[in-house]
Amino acid sequence: MNIIEKIIAAHSNQAVVKPGDIVDVFIDTRAARDFGGANVVKNLVDNGLTVADATKTIFTFDCNPGGSDQKYAANQHYCRQFARENGIRVYDVDAGIGTHLAIDNGFTWPGSTFVSTDSHANIMGAIAAFGQGMGDQDIAAAWAKGAVWFKVPSSVKINLNGKRPANVSAKDIVLNLLSIFGANKLLGCSVEIYGEEMEKLNLAERITIASMGTEMGAIIILFPTSPSLLGELKAITGNDYPDVTADQDAVYEKSFDIDLSKFVAMVAKPGHPHDDTSIENVRNQKIDSGFIGSCTNGRIEDLRIAAEVLRGRKVAPGVVLKVVPSTDAIWTQAMNEGLIRIFKEAGVMVSNAGCAGCAAGQVGQNGPGEVTISTGNRNFEGKQGKGFVYLASPAVVAASAVAGYITTPDQIPDQPTLFHATGKTDQSRVTRHEKEKEVKPTVVEGHVWIIPKDDIDTDMIFHNRYLTITDIKEMGQYAFDNLKGFEDFAKKANPGDIVITQKNFGAGSSRQQAVDCFLSLGISCILAESYGAIYERNAINAAMPILTYTPEILSMADIKHGDHIRVDFSTGVLTNLSNGKTANTDKFYDAQMAIYQNGGLL
Questions:
Q1: What angle do the packed helices 203-210 and 300-310 form, to 10 degrees?
Q2: Most buried among 70, 120, 179, 521, using CB within 10 Å?
């Protein structure tokens, strides 16, 4: 048998397995991340299932260390609670990438099996272990039963012959392989890689190549163990591990002989990891940002390579370089070795360990039109942000960040390239059309929403999870969705409606959206006993009608929720059209009326 068959047979009580066999595979370690972990728990709870063996079960919170996104924070806390009740270990937001933690802590080892909600769990092929990313239901089944069904894949053997060129990194090797096999020529196969140079690869280099098996469509890329690898694993974990290799008469569906000496330094062009080209074809491409990290290139060896390039240099003006170690232990090691100091002196942003921008959960995202060069494993459109992402090795990313354009360490210029004005934001080029000034109504009518609460803050009005919204048309739907009892306000409110509330309305932040969401809905005015100081200015400047009143007017005009009322901004007279009663509010002052009639401050 080959490697994958030997591992599966050993974990399924079978003497022999062959491609196409479907067997139940015992899983040595079963992991779930903050991404998907909550759904794993939900699947267990909803189906009345329990955890088979908590000692073989772990949570890893690596997608969004810190829970800076509310949904991630909620999922993480839900998983923590489940873990406490079931004795499950949690590698929390301070730990790092789950697959790396599993290797470094001895949860996986040569010949073992590992599953996770991480599509790059097949990184375990770096140590001749079986690793698989699986969906929430699969992982829930593994947690509950200790095993999952699996179809034995066909195996492919790749022989990389010849000497590795000096300028070809492990990242370059896998990008060259992607350029040969694309995203589907090895689809559904287990790939074993051999060659004299491959036996010399250290753990970090094997991880880089194995981690991009997913991008090649492969089930897994497996390296047989070597004495140097087993020695490295023992130094990390303190454990002795068995040698794992294929049998001499192992059967492969296909075998490929490839000349490693012909490999060149490469980058993947934006959009597809398999759309690869020689770095010479994109050299001098201007960049806006760089990223070093992810499960593909976040090991200490990767950081050392980047630091060596950055030592005594500065990141180019206007370029942002972000470095994210794969685990906290590696972060600490980088600090002890002085690498963090080199990064900081070069002008690099160093973040806490985790997956970073790969999962849209930490640092490393880019904006529309932004050009990034990254050591990540994926550059699908929208995967690491709205911009364009090139994939390359740590050395190339570091060199490019110093140069300001894509280049190699041996061709870093004495002076970086600088950004120049493009005219994209030059307002003098905008043709201004004078339009006849609209006379805005100073008397409005609408149905009343009475919200009897003091100190309604801007997070209750428009929560900070929506702050990236810049189109006012999209803001109305979120008005009051974080105010208990009024979460459905936006769905039920109609244009012209009037809000009456109490003291200190709009307390808190300076966010303009907390005003603009009401303009978006067509709310005709807001009455409050008082306003937060910044909120009051924001509303007046946005031509959002706001007035202050004294509590007596509610009883004087006998105003109830849903009444139809009229408000005169110039006189302050309030009329309850439902019963004919009137009362006085504070009218607009002159500056407020002038800004209102101007359509806003600007």
A1: 100
A2: 120
